[in-house]
Amino acid sequence: MANLTIHSKRTICAAHFLKNYEGNCGNIHGHNWDIEVWITKKSVSKVDEVYFGKTEGMLFDFRAVKEICERLDHKQLNDLLDFNSTAENLSIYITKEIVNKFSVMERQGGLIVKTRVCEKGENWSEYSLDSDELRDEKE
Ligand SMILES: [Zn+2]
Which end of the chain, N or C, is more open, meaning fewer C-beta atoms within 10 Å of its C-beta? Predict the structure, then answer.
């Protein structure tokens, strides 16, 4: 079975503080976050006519990753997001933003979207979502 994976890496700089956290991360501070996204199309041969014919050979437009990252870049994340901006939550948020760029039909074709959010090159969180598990997800 053939799978096709693309990868995109961006770096953003942003400020935040962790809510309800006792320690330095509870104070406002900044990070350079490396954000990496992998998008895998499963069983490419099964769907390539429908999928790639429509998109002229692109699985996903890398500009969309750039746009999502630019929304967060040079921002105070607590002002922007309605959740605590831990690496874990950011990896989930970015993954879902990317999944939402795909149509229902594209998702049904079999996708895995994985996002890694890395703080300072030391600590990272990785979240992956398989479209086969999306049936229970809200649109
Ligand atoms: Zn932090």
Answer: C
